[in-house]
Design a protein that fits this description.
Length: 115
């Protein structure tokens, strides 16, 4: 079994502590869009153009299918931090995986790096 050294154990404990402090998280992607409607007298066609929006779209996979929802500005204010938390959680998991790979590659003496 792989044996982490003291520095690696401390790094894992730090990652675990940061994971424990994580708040609610929403999966998927969030984009902010602005649109032009193309009507000649509309503000979006003015000089300078002032597009409609912003509009927020949340996209994620449910049972293998892509689902998109529009979010209002109020919903974006409420749930924006949850999207930020999800991104932070993915970063922490990637950090933990990289640390684990380092330990396993060293202890198993595997040639090359799999990262």
């Amino acid at each position: 079994m792989a044996e982490p050294n003291a520095t690696e154990r401390a790094a894992q404990a730090d990652i675990a502590a940061r994971l424990a402090r994580a708040g609610f998280a929403l999966p998927g992607s969030l984009i902010e869009r602005t649109l032009t409607c193309g009507k000649a007298n509309c503000r979006c066609m003015a000089d300078p153009p002032r597009p409609h929006g912003p509009f927020y779209q949340w996209t994620r996979k449910i049972a293998g299918k892509t689902v998109t929802r529009r979010l209002s500005s109020e919903q974006m204010t409420r749930y924006g931090p949850w999207f930020d938390n999800a991104k932070h959680l993915r970063e922490l998991v990637a950090e933990l995986e990289a640390l684990s790979l380092t330990i396993a590659e060293r202890d198993e003496n595997w040639p090359g790096k799999s990262r």
